[in-house]
Amino acid sequence: MSGQFDFRALLLKTQELLSDTDRHRLHFLLGDDIPKYLRDDPSLAGTLRVLETLFDRSIINDQDCDYLVDAFSKIQCNDAAKRLKEYKQAHGQNSRQKFSLEDILLQDSDDDKMCTTEITPVTFRILPTETRAPTCTNVNLESEEVSSILPCHNETTVYNYKYQWINLILKRPSSTCAWILLISAILILISLALTVYIWFKYFGSTEKKIIWTKNNTAKSCGFHGNDLSSVQIPKELCLKKCEETFECTHFTWTEHYSGTCWMKKGLVSKNDAFQTNDSTTMCGLTNDCRSGSTSSSIRWSRSDWAQGCGFRENDLSNVQIPKEHCLKKCENTFGCTHFTWTEHFGSICWMKKGLVSKNDAFQTGYDSTLCGMVNDYSLENTGSSLRWHRNDWAKSCDFCGSNLLNVQIPIEPCVNKCAETSECTHFTWTNHNNGTCWMKKGLVSKNQAIPTYDSSAICGIIERTR
Predict the structure, then answer these.
(1) Does the chain have fewer CB atoms within 10 Å around its N or its C terminus?
(2) In whole angstroms, what separates CA 432 from the centre of its chain?
């Protein structure tokens, strides 16, 4: 078995020595070396995922377990630390018992210097001075025969043998065919080198790449930090939950506590995601840093709000509330189509009226400010040019007939007046008699509203529960 297999088996054994309290203390001690969502899981499976993360980040391996020895010692799990120390000592002794190839070659070289004389005699031949190599010989002077001719393995000869292949390569070709073969071999080697380089650069990376879907979600990935909130829901609902949660720009889903959606805030991109070995995890973005306005670098979320921006003028009203409530407050305020939140003067939500688009927003230079729209022009009536607000009202429109009653009141209370009036299902407000709310009855839809040339008029529908 491999060293890594034995080391992992030992780590499994050490888990039998740890209690849940020990696991809690170990996860706390490891701190930022592991993701936060793993620190909160003191189960055996959670600790095994912690160890797998340490393997992935090259903090531990079968050659180096000092990190775990130190960690177990500090949480007073001495038996676990002792087992790892014994493994380390045994592994070190096995390594010292292995001889390197260089030691074996040096030993063989020493043995070769012991020239034997029990070899069949051969005729002695004198080599030219310039080509003769040093030899160890036993010469029989009476018979003029050599009893042995062996190469002396001195330093010069060993050097010559070692680099003999280099001399063969650099030897000048003696014919045209040899030149052609040499040039062809060089070109083939260059082509192979280029092919290997291109393959590893574009196709052969051993690191897995995150594959993103059209919805900006991916499997086996996550985002570090910037936690906003978490909720236990199925994986397929995590993206929608993040889109509906104010300030949530990205998320990570894990199997923690039978499925947890970790919603996160802040501007990130796909490059900020990291790869995991858990195929059940999922990560995604509701703002992929590409949906910003073409006229500025404001980055809009899918819920039509952004950081570091504002809208000028057209103030409707203001209220002192936390920033996460400003969008909801605008949606519930009649006539509010967009807003700006700022921490100046004590966290003020400035609700604004009038038709605007994202191009009307400006950058403030402060990340703490917030702006958004509750009418993004995307909820248009398919049967007319009317642009409906998310609270089911629109400008410059009217409903014909079905009058229930009318009352002279300003434009803002008209929708509430209809909602409080029994049988009133829809309404029209005009500036007739300094402002008249025409309440109407019967079932209608947005398709029945007709456009008018009166820019001050509004119409709307009251959704009543049955």
Answers:
(1) C
(2) 59
Report the candidate in 104, 106, 113, 105 with the shortest Cα–Cα distance to residue 151: 113
Three-state DSSP state, 434: helix
Rounded Cα–Cα distance for residues 239 and 285 (Å): 8
HSE-CB for 84 with a 13 A CA cutoff: 25
The residues, ordered by sequence, that sit 6+ positions from 75 with a Cβ below 8 Å of its Cβ are 22, 25, 26, 29
Q: Please tell me the total number of residues recorded for the chain in this structure.
A: 466
End-to-end Cα separation, the chain, in angstroms: 70
For the stretch 78-127, pLDDT in tens is 888 888 888 888 876 655 554 444 454 455 455 444 444 444 444 444 44
Exposed/middle/buried for 451, CB within 10 Å: 0-12, 13-18, 19+?
middle
pTM summary value = 0.34
Q: Which residues of 148-167 are buried (b: 16+ CB within 10 A; e: fewer)?
A: beeeebeeeeeeeeeeeeee
Distances (CA, A) of 133 to 72, 124, 160, 397: 64, 14, 10, 110
Give the confidence band of 53 by pLDDT, cuts at 50, 70, 90.
confident
Angle, helix 3-15 to helix 44-56, in steps of 10 degrees: 150
